[in-house]
Amino acid sequence: MLNILSLILRGTRELGLVTLWHSITYLIRKRWYRVRFGKNRRSRASASSDYLRPGPVTNHAHQGQTVTITCARGSYALTVLAPDLIRVRFQPANQPSAPLFSYSIAKSDEEWPPCDFHITETGTAIEIRTSRLLCRLAKASGKIAFLDWEGNVVNEDEAGAGWHPLGDVICQKRIQPDEHFYGLGERTFALDLRGRRYGMWNTDPRTYRLGQDPIHLCMPVLLGLHSQGRQGYGIFSDNTFRGWFDLGAQDPHTASFGAEGGELCYYFIYGPALTTVVERYTELTGRMMLPPLWMLGYQQSRWSYHPEARVRKLAADFRQVYHVPCDCIHLDIHYMDGYRCFTWDPKRFPAPAKKIADLHEQGFKIIVILDPGIKADPHYGVCQNGLEQDVFCKYPDGKTLFKGPVWPGDCYFPDFTNPRVRAWWGDLCQGLTEVGVDGIWNDMNEPAIFGLRSTTLPDFVQHDLEGQGGDHAEVHNVYGMQMARATAEGLMKLRPDERPVCITRSGWAGVQRYAMSWTGDNRSNWSHLWLSMPMLMNLGLCGLAHTGPDIGGFSRFATGELFTRWLQMGVFLPFLRSHTFVHSPDQEPWSWGEPYLSINRSYIELRYRLLPYLYTAFWQCAQAGLPIVRPLLLAFQDDTVTHALDDQFMCGDAFLVAPVIEVGATRRSVYLPAGVWYDFWTDERLSGPARVEVEAPLERLPLFVRTGSVVPMAPPMQYVGERPVDSLTLHVYPGEGESRLYEDDGRTWAFRDGEYRLTHFALSTNGSPLSRLDLRRQVEGRYKPQYQDFEVVIHGVDRLPRTALADGQPIDHYELDVGGSAIHLHTGLFKRLTVEWT
Ligand code: MIG
Question: Does the pLDDT value for residue 20 go beyond 90?
Answer without folding.
Answer: no
